[in-house]
Amino acid sequence: MKQLWFTALLNRLFGGPVYSLLTALHIHINPRHAATPISNSFAMEVIVMLLLVTFFIAVRFGLSVDQPGGLQHSMEGIEGFIGNMAEEIIGHHYKPYHPYLVALGLFILTSNLLGLIPGFESPTAVPIVPLGCALVTWLYYHFQGLRTNGVGYFKHFMGPVWWLAPLMLPIEIFSHTARLLSLTVRLYANMFAGEMVTLVFFSLIPIGVPIVFEGLHVGVSLIQTYIFVILACVYLGEATARDH
Fold this sequence. Notes:
The chain is mostly helical. The protein is built from seven helices and no strands. The radius of gyration is 21 Å and the shape is globular.
């Protein structure tokens, strides 16, 4: 796969140390790629992280009670929107999970929209990145379920009555494992398709028509971010409910 310019820069600066680290960790890298161990998707995630850190710093230093700026209004709007959604789905005990949901939503949205910038691509259009988001969310809601309910959390996997446990346990385990696949494929497939459609029309008709698909890409990015975050709220609500 052709390297993007930022990926090439990272490989030029850090390719050697990264390859040595991966080798020391016994992670196999094809010797042909020894000089380029950093992938496009990882490089794009670095860009997303830098953008978000810059955004958070700008919001922090621009905080004002009397004269809030545009960045502060934007952050308050995002925080309020996700907070209201989380409260409706999870309940009044949503606040401990609010920061994670906001960070998750901003990371996915920024990753989705990054492909609109020439010279970049959406990291969420590569399977490993949606899988990472799904896996972290999956582990997070199970951890919060155990933290809230203790060992009683496992009653959720056993069914309403004890004699159904042998049947319900494998079904519940399969169901929760399938959530990883569902979250990953939904986000990856939609972003990959959006990127491909945009690239095809840019190559065929470089002026005019592709703007419509850029707008479609923005819409898909927003919808997929919303779906991912709302499903995270649903899973958190189920895991932390007190009536297991």
